[in-house]
Amino acid sequence: MSATPNSRERYSAHLPALHLLCNLGWSFQTTAQALSLRGSTREVLLKGRLVEVLQTRRYEYKGEWYPLSPSGIEQIVRELSALSLAEGLMPANERLYGKLALGITVTEFMPDGKKHQPTIAVIDWTDASANRWDVTEELEVLSAQGTHHRTPDVVAYVNGIPLVVIEAKRPESGGGSHPSKAMVQEGISQHLRNQRPDEIPNLFAYAQLLLSISQTEGRYGTTHTAAKFWAKWREEEFDDAHLQAVKNAPLPPKVRAALFEGKPGSLATYFDTLWSAPMQATEQDRLLVSLLTPSRVLELLRGYVLFDRKVGKIVARYQQFFGIRALLSRISQKKSDSQGGGREGGVVWHTTGSGKSFTMVFLTKALLLVESLKECRIVVVTDRVNLETQLSRNFMTGGAFGSSIATQKDGERSRTLSGRDLAQRIGKGTERITFTLVHKFNTASKLPECRNDSADMIVLVDEGHRSHGGETHERMKKALPKAAYIAFTGTPLLKDEKTSNKFGPIVHAYTMQRAVEDETVAPLLYEERVPELDINEEAVNRWFDKITSNLSDAQRSDLKRKSAKKGAIYGAANRIELIAWDIATHFNENIKKLDLGLKGQVATDSKLDAIRYKKALDETGLVTSAIVISAPDTREGNSEVDEDTLPEVQKWWKQAMATSGNDPEAYEKQVIGDFGTDGAPDLLIVVDKLLTGFDEPRNTVLYIDKPLKGHNLIQAIARVNRLHDAKRYGVLVDYRGILKELDTAIRAYQDLESRTQGGFDVQDLEGLYHQFSTEYKRLPALHEQLWSFFKSVTNKLDREQYRQVLAPRFVKDADGAEYDERQKLRDDFYDALTAFGLCLQTALSSRSFFEDKSFSEELIARYKSDLRFFTELRQTARRDAMETVDYSVYEEQIRKLVDKQVIGTEVREAEGVYLVHQLGQAEKPEDWSEEKTRNETDMIRTRLRKTIEQELAEDPYAQKVFGELLRRAIAEAEAMFDHPLKQYALFKSFEEQVASRATPGTPVELADNPHAKAYFGAIRLVLGEDGFAALEPQGLERLVQQSLAIDSVVKDAVAENSLNPQNIEAAIRKGLLPLLFGSLGLDNAKQVVEQVIQITRIGLSKA
Length: 1103
Known about the structure:
alpha/beta, 6-stranded mixed β-sheet, Rossmann fold, 7-stranded mixed β-sheet, 44 helices, 33 strands, 6 domains
């Protein structure tokens, strides 16, 4: 006998599967024994076994228990045998599942002569030992037309019913025309073939779990599961020790004898040798133990199978199964009286695209199976109408309303019509499931009937990071104080883990990286394409000086900062035209010409940009596109009545709505519907809409021309990760340079996963509410203080009187210099308003505030109204005092300037394409392939360029030095082209140097003071390298002390003028010129001061 493993199917997968199943408690039946129990190859039920089980069943009648009569048993056998396939395989399978889940009603004639109709459980779902577990091999089944047989490798029976069908394949890849095709895919293909009407659908009318195994891999599905949706399973309960114990347990002699009966002796010898020593568990073993342990089979099939009228039959994926298990455990826990009583809640973090909607449906069904939770009512809360519609439809088609024939009216009736309707349902309703928009709690909670103190209320919140801060969230909790709050999110907020702070610990996590590894979603490829711009800076500066000649230096600086923040250059018409051509060409060449029906999305920064992109894309003639945006504000941007002079956005909106009867919802529905077909549009152009909650499998490429960060970025990129038969990857094409943000966001989420996979300890959250319980009590005093500024106002409804209290009043001091004597009054008013606003915000986020009877709804409304009024008054006062510049006055002029003076020249193609889910991971470079090493090196080069260009803008000298060092590193790397690992090490070392800001030649005294280091560098730039090199040691020491002094002056200027930032620069100039003049001379001192001011501006803009 060969001393090497045999990789043929029977040796590597088939018999190892039977061996493991026997160790799990399944009873092996030879092919002959199974055929004897079936009767013929046309039959698939083991009728003899079914009868044996039914003979053990008992039913109750008038306090006594009776066995089934032969007639009763015959009724059940006949009903299970007569599964008609006339309507198709899926309806037959659904009817069978219903009989198994609910039992079969029989008619029995009792000793007292009366007729009784008990419902008999064919399967005992609660006690695995009360069922018979049989497994057989090579089950020969006659085809529907009687022309041929098909022979599944392994079939597992529960009480004589074939619930599991397994195809076992050898581990190596297929040959012939598919040399790289995994054999597990061949098994899936056989399953799908065998379900066809002319094959053996009668077997699959009973089957509930289908497995394809090949030693090194395993997938599972169910009836009619498309190949792309067959899933892997990651076990979270059975550990490796359990797995090894099951695999290495010896077979009883009788079982071993049955297993090898009729097989060659060499086969038995091979396995006796194999089983005589410890074996390592395989992926096949993991799948079999996870899904086919008898108790797990019962749990999975009873609670985690759905028949959805739109999607078809669904069996839960592992993250849904274990997520719901964790939720049921969490919901079953009660809070202590000191915590307010009620049920515990938490957060389910399952990445976008992993089936959160169906997880909710599974949960609603699972609750019915837990005795202590089956009476619970469910409120599903969303923040958008389209999500509410989508979820209610999924609940309806998935059978969450308790019936597979729930109608559309059932779904519609579950949705609240108004705040008053919501209040009625909460206080007096009996509906098991209610859908509502979170904003309806704002009005509902003010009605006395909107209160339910029952702990049997469960609130499911979709995308719990949105719209659940502050007042709305607390009003919801006021209405349902003891409910369990469960938040479902694909991207919890990272900052302080706010999502979990609101709802409790993260109960279960399933991240993007895990989903990609499981092939639950498509992996994402990232490509950066940089538009090169030619900006006529001289013309821009001349124009800017001209139109702002009436402004002070500080106001001009303020305007420049605001225009920079508005990103005017990104909206330049010529830039958009350049990118639009690049998008059209890229999509046409890489997607459209493949003729696979795939689509794309363009994410823009504003509605005006979206419209400009639409026009530019249309002019290419290469692609079709459509815009989906929210309605523009018709109150803004109008200067004339003539329709042709309306702002571009409003004009486009009016034209677009004219095509859909002025119904925005109808327009959006039509566009989204068309996007889901093979026809136009190829591209959807969006701003914010459809960057979250939009699931279209055809959506393959996202073109990004807007700044995105954190959870918004993760949400957006997930638009293109849905599985589609024609799509291997989702593609991200970046025109804004978000790679660093993407890398940072993914690192942050991986970190959050590692810290929260086990959930937060409740003690981690207790401190969060302490300040809330006392802070709101300061409101009355702060409110009174705010009003104290306006004691002189006699007519409280006269807005002008309030304005005059704060209006500037210029007087002369003893030296004859003018000053505004009301400046301090305004500053104090601003402080008081800020304190009141922050306190009210905190109060509205505090449950104790709403429960405090001394704060009525009328008083809360007064506080909010006063805050609104005084905030508007502050804006008026600032304009009157010219403390700020109204950017809108200059906005159109700036846009026209940019359109004229910013010219797009070319789009620079990417230096590398990156797999998104691999960003942020720590790996060993020496284990990488050459291609991956080069890609990682390109990624570092891109990061370095961005870091030097953007993050080092606050340190001009470091920016210059590291920029030159990067150029040298690139030249050096090019000389090492044949050594990619050395290239990677070179750039990695350089990146660490940049990260530490270890600028060569920086005095050690400044090493821990980045600001002083930057100012030292500014002086060095002004002096020049020759002048700096000529300094004596005492001169160098003087520059170090001056750098520290500059830092002190700047910090004081910023702190003392935090409420009047326009004065910061004047204070810096006033403090620095005397300090630097003596040692540097006037000209050099002025240059250093301007450098310091520029560094300060950049720092403040990032603050």
